Amino acid sequence: MMDRSAQMLVALVVLYVIIVALGVPQAVGMGLVTTRLAGCPLFSELTSPGFPVPALYGTVHNCNYVTYMPVIISVILGLILFIYHLSLLVQALRRPGIIPAETSAVPFVVISLLGLVLTLIGAGILEAGLYWFCQSNKVIAARFINVPITCVPGEATVALFRGYDPYYDLLTSEVSYWLAVAAWLLAFIFSILRWTALRRERGQGDDLRATTASGQRPGGQAFGGVSLLADKFKKRPVETVTPTKVIPVGQTMAGSTLYETKVKPLETAA
Prior knowledge:
Blueprint: H1 4-37, E1 40-46, E2 55-58, H2 60-94, H3 106-145, H4 167-212, E3 252-253, E4 256-257
Antiparallel strand pairs: 1-2, 3-4
């Protein structure tokens, strides 16, 4: 049966596979929208229908962050973490007696926290930018098309972009981002649990070695925790007898006569 740290490794391997898989739609969705619109739709203000739409587009840095951050953090870093934790899992299954130092898990707690923070920032930028983009679309749709929209895929927004509906790709990127935030959060939690499990197992191993080393060698020295002498062969404490005055046989002491006690010799059985 796997120990607790190995179970945490299994969970982390699965989570990093999910993170790598989510990194692709995170980046591709926003990249397609930016290319098709020839500008960054985040925090943009549309002024008239048509394609390309005459608009005051948002700063390109927002779209660059939302597009390229998951490539570096979710795909590349997630793939490295997946390979490394998979190798640790294989080693833990092959040689379960070896307990890694708890300090080896600390860097991955920090890395998973970094991935969580960066992904959460990207999700926040995407969410706020899409809200602004949606409000701008609502205004232009009401002014030029006279059709109310709610900024979901398949609505009349295709009329704004000559047949291209950006909300399919935007929604894909948005959902992938928030799922990636949840995956990084779980990876951070399981990294902490693995670190605490390693500390506990290392502490138990140190206690076991200390208990084993308290055994006795012959003569009272420790020998691998095993006492090699049986109890009946061990040295007994020596009792000291104080000599007393010997009174000759036949003399009296305090009015009493001491007689020599003769013991009948033992007979040898025939």
